[in-house]
Write a structure and sequence with these properties.
5-stranded parallel β-sheet; alpha/beta; Arc Repressor Mutant, subunit A; Rossmann fold; 2 domains; 12% strand; 200 residues
Length: 200
């Protein structure tokens, strides 16, 4: 995880028309040690090319096409540059799930906070997504173990505790997880594992 207090070497993409706001933001980001790429809000080809190679993205919430920004790299934190606090535009920013925002005209003060919040929120989202994926995988593994135990019980006359002990022994002998052994059994059409269990 990136140190939330140091941004040196991070790659920022600023999607905004030329002008004082973009100049101030780019200058401040560079002073904080970021590598900065700039592109206009209307240059979709350049945006798509540049956004695949950035660590944080600043975009003009008043002009940039949100649907295009969401097309790739969902883990990249987005910081909205908001010029008009209109409910419809704020709702669009909320749907984009921006990690932070800056009000226009952008000043040097506030950019560090936006970077900190942006990287921190993105890291939290990645961690939560990994935890959800791990939970789904554990649930899948448990279902496979139950299926394997039921199969052993049906084909070997074992009770469920004996079937689980067999799975555990097989797991230790083969140095594979119980879930992996169960997955092989469930996927196997021949059912060699139950035959081995009858002999154990």
């Amino acid at each position: 995880m990136r140190d939330p207090t140091s941004f040196r070497g991070a790659r920022a993409l600023v999607i905004h028309p030329e002008g004082a706001t973009r100049d101030t933001l780019v200058r401040t980001l560079k002073q904080l040690g970021l590598l900065v790429a700039e592109v206009g809000s209307d240059n979709e080809t350049a945006i798509l090319a540049a956004r695949a190679d950035c660590d944080i993205l600043f975009y003009d919430a008043d002009q940039s096409p949100v649907s295009m920004l969401a097309a790739e790299a969902p883990d990249v934190p987005h910081v909205a540059l908001i010029g008009h606090e209109v409910p419809s535009r704020l709702a669009r920013v909320a749907r984009q799930r921006c990690c932070a925002f800056l009000l226009k005209p952008v000043r040097a003060t506030g950019v560090f906070s936006a970077l900190y919040l942006g990287f921190h929120e993105a890291a939290v989202r990645r961690r939560e997504a990994a935890e959800r994926a791990a939970l789904v995988e554990r649930q899948r593994g448990r279902r496979l173990v139950v299926k394997a135990i039921l199969r052993l019980c049906a084909e070997t006359q074992m009770d469920d505790e004996a079937a689980f002990r067999w799975l555990r022994r097989e797991s230790m002998q083969r140095r594979l997880s119980i879930e992996r052994i169960a997955e092989e059994m469930v996927a196997s059409a021949a059912g060699t594992a139950p035959a081995q269990a009858r002999r154990s």
